[in-house]
Amino acid sequence: MRQLQEKLKMARGEAPAELLFKNARLANVLSGEIHPANIAVTDGRVIGIGDYEAERVIDLEGAYLAPSFIDGHFHVESSMLTMPEFARAVVPHGTGAVVIDPHEYANVLGLDGIRYVLESSKGLPLDFFIMLPSCVPATHLETAGARLTADDLALMIADERVAGVAELMNYPGVYLGQESELAKIRAGKGKAIDGHAPGLRGKNLNAYVLAGVRSDHESTELEEAEEKLRLGMHLLLREGSTERNLATLAPLVTPHNSMNCSFATDDKLAGDLVTEGHIDHCVRKSIKLGMRPITALQIATINTARHYRLRNFGAIAPRYWADFVVFDDLKKLVVRQTYKKGLLVAENGKYLGGPVEIVPQPRSTINLRYRAADLEVKAGPAGKIKVIKIVPNQIVTRQVLAAPKIVAGKIVADPSRDILKLVVVERHRATGNVGVGFVRGFKLKSGALGSTVAHDAHNVVVVGTNDADIRRVIEELVHLRGGQAAVAGGQVKAALGLPIAGLVSDQPLDEVIEKIAGLNAAAAAMGCELEAPFMTLSFLSLSPIPELKLTDQGLIDAVHLRKTGLYA
Amino acid sequence: MRQLQEKLKMARGEAPAELLFKNARLANVLSGEIHPANIAVTDGRVIGIGDYEAERVIDLEGAYLAPSFIDGHFHVESSMLTMPEFARAVVPHGTGAVVIDPHEYANVLGLDGIRYVLESSKGLPLDFFIMLPSCVPATHLETAGARLTADDLALMIADERVAGVAELMNYPGVYLGQESELAKIRAGKGKAIDGHAPGLRGKNLNAYVLAGVRSDHESTELEEAEEKLRLGMHLLLREGSTERNLATLAPLVTPHNSMNCSFATDDKLAGDLVTEGHIDHCVRKSIKLGMRPITALQIATINTARHYRLRNFGAIAPRYWADFVVFDDLKKLVVRQTYKKGLLVAENGKYLGGPVEIVPQPRSTINLRYRAADLEVKAGPAGKIKVIKIVPNQIVTRQVLAAPKIVAGKIVADPSRDILKLVVVERHRATGNVGVGFVRGFKLKSGALGSTVAHDAHNVVVVGTNDADIRRVIEELVHLRGGQAAVAGGQVKAALGLPIAGLVSDQPLDEVIEKIAGLNAAAAAMGCELEAPFMTLSFLSLSPIPELKLTDQGLIDAVHLRKTGLYA
């Protein structure tokens, strides 16, 4: 790398720059306009905008040049990809940096999981900034693989790639002033403090903000988002695979408040990333919804960089990293080229990143025990049972009541009424904990589906029409050292191994997408009509999200955050 | 102070807040709108917005409530007031925080000057944040009382009230990559780095930004400001006593870039602060110029707080300080009340701040020697001489040529052509340095005016029609231990003592204003038509500002930053 003095000489025009991007229509997110410009780059940074000489000239011939996009909140584990394979998926879509919350890694592996993320995200044409998971385990109502305290967070907060403390999902803990939660905010040491407060309004929301939380990505209604914005929260407009709030929230965004907005995907499947896109999709959709392109581009770049203090990211100006996207049509906004620190790293959808050193996988994390009898549910004297009802494309669930189907004194699945058995088996420390409940919405006519991705504790979760297939799924997941599987009639119809923490595949992007498609096809063949049945399954044990959930500790009233019985 | 837990209880509405501001029309600079609100305050912070109970209720009856204003760049010495008396001047105008560059204190007293500023600005109903002076002395072409290196800045940068490194006035030094200047930027340790680059454009401006400078307050033309904004500089829209750029620059501001703008006064006299106002004047003027009120209010508050990372300043939302202004008309915008941390500190123009402990004054700083002959200028063989021409209301000067008036082989002042003698005497270390030149623009018919405020080295500067009165002025300034004086016919017509560093009065606001008025009246009686003759005088030795200046080292070509001869 050159000395700054040498680069200043180039900026002054006294020596040729390395590279000149000529004849750009620059999306200048700092001055809020699009104007013609030539941009000189040396050592991966913009060194000047103007009529420069350079050793190599890239003539953009009037194409648009914008800063690479930044995702303000993402759980990279939701892609089930390693860091290099995730880069392969999103870099062609123009993503240059991602603020990730390695919440799932941390739930399974604790600090070792965060260290693995930091290590395995180096050397890629995509920058990762880490928010330290603040709710591991998510609640006391589930058994995770690790527990992180404020002291643990304090160990890592000073790392230059750590941007703050991740979503404080235990929002009642925060607004009620629990010392453990306030200590996590203090551990942030002035860095960003992310929130997570679905539906939180009024005085409790005020208390949540007063405690120090300064962002939220969980608004699903316009008025909720408006209230959060008014109280000073940075709004992450979420558009993931399942949670899609952008269309609802976009009308709130004006040029007078857009600086307090970012795009985020939260959770997005590998296939969706590849086919639909990443933050580029958010920009496209926002423009379609009527947002001014420059505003959408600001939300996709500089606003996020500023909120999370990602120095020299998010704009095209001297000293900023030369992280660029090139596109030809401002409204269609299809990324044609992506540059990382001045290097072309994707073109026409093709990833051009080089090979990276593979960081050794963490230890195997599938460690469970259970007996067949644990899956059985004895029938009670009388009355209806509580059934988890899926809300399509949402992570919230509803509680509905139904008469149980009883066979030989046991409550069993009743596919004819779409009431299936749901099982959660603890898989970190072989406690033998097994939770059993019932769920409506999968519409399986036969077989069972299972996953070791199961927010947030990531125990084994299985939905099925019969116990034999449920047991067969669990057997397969152990065999895979973690993964997802579809079983019918005792046969494995499709499977995806996720040996990295039971969350992430060690295989290439294409293979992961293909196997996920296989799993979905298998589920569909078994009668399931959900778009993303395994993602839906993986959220059924997420105890902090209303209304009714199932963890290894049993049925959870997720409104009042307490265990609850099966019978109403 | 209460524990956070107790305040959270109030925020949740489970205990009454201390104070409720009821029926406000809240200028919400975060959501970019004005909406009705009730704001609860405890221990000086906003704890909630909503329908709260409180021990004391202030009914605003529909008046506007906005965050207190913030000045993004100010030299408090320009008011010639102590910190408490400065607060008395600006708090009634709604100022809640000021980012100050104690450049003059530092030029005279070095680190002791900065420490004095930090100490003497505590306990006031006005928050001061300090930018560490980066150019002491301003150039090698003048003799200041101190020299600050990057190592000196590094000693103080971590102070929580230090917001960064102040204006890098040696902009050629920066863009040319002088190690001493780059070291000062590195000493900023990631805090804000302020620029100062009048007229700097094109490639050298790119280099200046590349070096790490991220703001500027010196733009006097629209295109210049546009270029700076496009390159990522935070624009400080300056409106001081002399430098008034707001009307020129306001057309550049759009809702799409206003987040990168702040208001600043740079230098403003006590009388102007009292009668015209401070940042409230900038807001009023911007609205008159056609800016949307909420945009002007954002520029006056949150934008500045964010750029300088003044935590919990600049907005009204939970956790922010309860620094409020109340006004009744959004367009007239006359501040009726100012609150500091929930306390009423000014009302209807009257300052209500309590008495503060007086911090001991620094040592006396007037230490000079010269002989009468030093003031004389021998005539050369022939030719015209260079004369500094004042540009009214600007700190730039022009160089004009004129035939010298020669008497007894000496070049003397010629009031009939408005060519007066200008003298600068070094006053810090009694070097005996005396610079002599000529100036056009004062129009004195008799007498002399002198000042120990003389940017940036603050040596003694005197303009006069004859040497006797010039000497009498110097005598008076020594007697006052620093100050400003007007002398005619050997008589002191008016004087203001500035015993604190030779820059600042130890007297109350009213008396300072009265004495300044007396000085101006005396100057006017002597024929001067300038609005602020002593401010104009004080900028004539500012060597980094074009075109022609005079320091204790002689005439300075301020375009090329080198000494120059009197004859053309």
Report on this model:
The structure is a homodimer of 568-residue chains. With 568 residues, chain A is of the alpha/beta class. Chain A is built from 17 helices and 30 strands. In chain A, the strands form six sheets. In chain A, strands 1, 2, 3, 4, 5, 14, 15, 16 and 17 form a nine-stranded mixed β-sheet that branches. The relative contact order of chain A is 0.13. At the A-B interface, helix 1, strand 3, helix 8, helix 9 and helix 13 of A face helix 1, strand 3, helix 8, helix 9 and helix 13 of B.
Computed CA radius of gyration of chain A, to the nearest angstrom: 24 Å
Mean pLDDT of chain A: 96
Mass-distribution shape of chain A: elongated
N-to-C CA distance of chain A: 68 Å
Largest interface: A-B, 58 and 58 residues
**What oligomeric arrangement do these chains adopt?**
homodimer
Number of strands of chain A: 30
Structural class assignment of chain A = alpha/beta
Percent helix of chain A, as a range, is 10-25%
* β-strand amount of chain A: 25-35%
Largest sheet: number of strands, sense, barrel closure of chain A = 9 strands, mixed
Helix count from the secondary structure assignment of chain A:
17
Low-pLDDT stretches of chain A are none
Q: Strands, helices and their partners?
A:
Two copies of one chain form a homodimer.
Chain A: H1 4-11, E1 17-28, E2 33-42, E3 45-49, E4 54-59, E5 64-67, E6 69-74, H2 83-90, E7 95-100, H3 103-109, H4 111-120, E8 127-132, H5 150-156, E9 162-168, H6 171-175, H7 179-186, E10 192-195, H8 202-210, E11 215-216, H9 222-230, E12 234-238, H10 246-249, E13 261-264, H11 270-275, H12 279-288, H13 293-300, H14 302-307, E14 324-327, E15 335-340, E16 343-347, E17 350-351, E18 385-390, E19 397-402, E20 405-407, E21 410-412, E22 420-425, E23 434-440, E24 448-451, E25 460-464, H15 467-479, E26 483-488, E27 491-497, H16 509-525, H17 533-538, E28 548-551, E29 554-557, E30 562-563
Parallel strand pairs in A: 1-4, 1-5, 6-7, 7-8, 8-9, 9-10, 11-12, 12-13, 18-23
Antiparallel strand pairs in A: 1-2, 2-3, 5-14, 14-15, 15-16, 16-17, 18-19, 20-21, 22-23, 22-25, 24-25, 24-26, 26-27, 28-29, 29-30
